[in-house]
Amino acid sequence: MSKTEQTxxxxxxxxxxxNLQDQIKQEFKNKGFDIxxxxxxxxxxxxxxxxxxxHESKPFYNDLCAYLSSGPIxxxxxxxxxxxxxxxxxxxxxxxxxxxxxxxxxKYGISIDKNSVHGSDSIxxxxxxxxxxxxx
Length: 136
Ligand code: CDP
Ligand code: MG
Fold this sequence. Notes:
By secondary structure, the chain is an alpha+beta fold. It is about 40% helix and about 20% strand.
């Protein structure tokens, strides 16, 4: 059974730098997502470290946090039925090289680190991530 969910998307610095945000937002809308909230922000390295704490032990953690805080990002709350899984499908594989044709990372991603978009990976994490950026 499908039900309305929310998920967090981030348009990462590489995509904002190339001014791809309107195109990417249109892709969400075309797939039936409603944009509930959005804001353009530039987070600190410390905030990025808190956001990606789950990856703390990974070898790429430091570079990942430096990267996410390297320039402006757009954080977006998306809503539709099965939003979490459908956004993951729309994004494609973490490495743009492995992403399927038509996915955001295939179309816009540059490399595994500069892969243009973040999306929550579970309903539970979506709630935590939305709260992280829109906690008012
Ligand atoms: O973003 P996604 O959930 O697909 O992947 P993840 O495994 O949760 O990793 C978070 C982010 O770390 C990825 O989106 C990549 O930008 C980055 N990463 C990396 O730079 N090098 C790796 N080997 C794996 C991930
Ligand atoms: Mg992830």
